[in-house]
Amino acid sequence: MAAQDIIIRPIITEKTMDGTSQKKYTFEVSKDSTKIDIARAVEELFGVKVSKVNTLHVRGRLRRQGRNEGYTRSWKKAVVTLTEGSKTIEFFESMV
Known about the structure:
Blueprint: H1 3-6, E1 7-10, H2 14-18, E2 24-29, H3 35-46, E3 50-58, E4 62-65, E5 68-71, E6 75-82, H4 90-93
C-alpha cells in the first residue's frame, strides 16, 4: 500500500494542535493499516523520524435529521509522536 493510501488526512482541532508542541501529530488513517505502516508512511511523506504511534478506532455515531436516522462512518485515528531530534511537520506549523 502506498503512503498516500495509508494517511488519509490530518486532524485539525484545538486539542490536536495543542499536541504539536510535544511533537504529537494526529491523522486519519486507513482502517487496515498497522502501526508500522503508519510510521513508515509519515516518515516517507514528511521526512521526519517517528518514535511512537498510538491508534484508535472511532465508532460511527447515531445521527437524526427529522424522522430519518443513520450512523456516521467509523474511521481510524493515529497519534504520531516524533523523536526529539526530528524536525517539525511544516503543514501543522502553518496552522498555528
